[in-house]
Structures are given as C-alpha cells and as structure tokens.
Specification:
This protein is an alpha+beta fold. It has 3 helices and 4 strands; from the N terminus they run αβαββαβ. This is Heavy-metal-associated domain-containing protein.
Length: 112
C-alpha cells in the first residue's frame, strides 16, 4: 500500500513540474515577439504591396508582414522579434525596395 501511495505522489509531482515548465516556455515565446503597424506612402500598384511584404519577411527575426488595402497611404502589420531586428531596419528595407515599374527608383516613404 505504501508503494502505491509513493508511486501516486511521484506521478503527481512529475505532472505538476512538467506543466509549470511548459507554461514558462510559452510565456517567454509570447513576450519575445512584437507587432507594429507601419504606414507607407508612395505605393502605386498591388505588386508593390507584395514586393515590400516579401522583402520585409526576408529579414531575420520577422515572422510575418501582411499588407492592408492599397491607397495614398498603405499599412503593413509586421510581427517580429525585437532582439533580432529593429523597427529602423524594417523601415530601411521598405524604403530601399524598388517599385514594380522601375526597380531602381526608391519611392516609398514611411509615414510617422
């Protein structure tokens, strides 16, 4: 009977410690990512939206870049790890992306 009680006690301790460890790991992953909305002026076609999003997603630390509707000012929701990449680096990539009509022309500006 003592053996069964000891076995149950060890089993409970094992389950409790495992669930606490997983809870801490999930919290750390959630805290390390940041989501920002970046407004960009100068976008003239829908291909520009796709090119900017693709270039931003190439950055190490960026997990997603989703564009909104095209207009005089378009917005992008960027989810990234601020330890690996800064907002200024993301801005730089956006502003250095060439337009679909003329890849050498750098027409995009971040609206602050």
């Amino acid at each position: 009977m003592k053996f069964i009680k000891s076995l149950v006690l060890v089993f409970i301790i094992l389950i409790t410690s495992t669930s606490i460890a997983f809870a801490q790991e999930t919290t750390q992953n959630t805290d390390s990512s940041k989501t920002v909305t970046i407004k960009v002026k100068g976008i003239t076609c829908s291909m520009d939206l796709k090119m900017i999003a693709a270039n931003v997603e190439k950055l190490k630390g960026v997990s997603s870049c989703r564009s909104g509707k095209m207009g005089t000012t378009s917005s992008f929701k960027v989810k990234f790890n601020p330890i690996l990449v800064t907002e200024k680096e993301i801005y730089r990539v956006i502003e250095k992306t060439g337009s679909c009509e003329n890849p050498e022309e750098k027409i995009y500006k971040i609206k602050q």
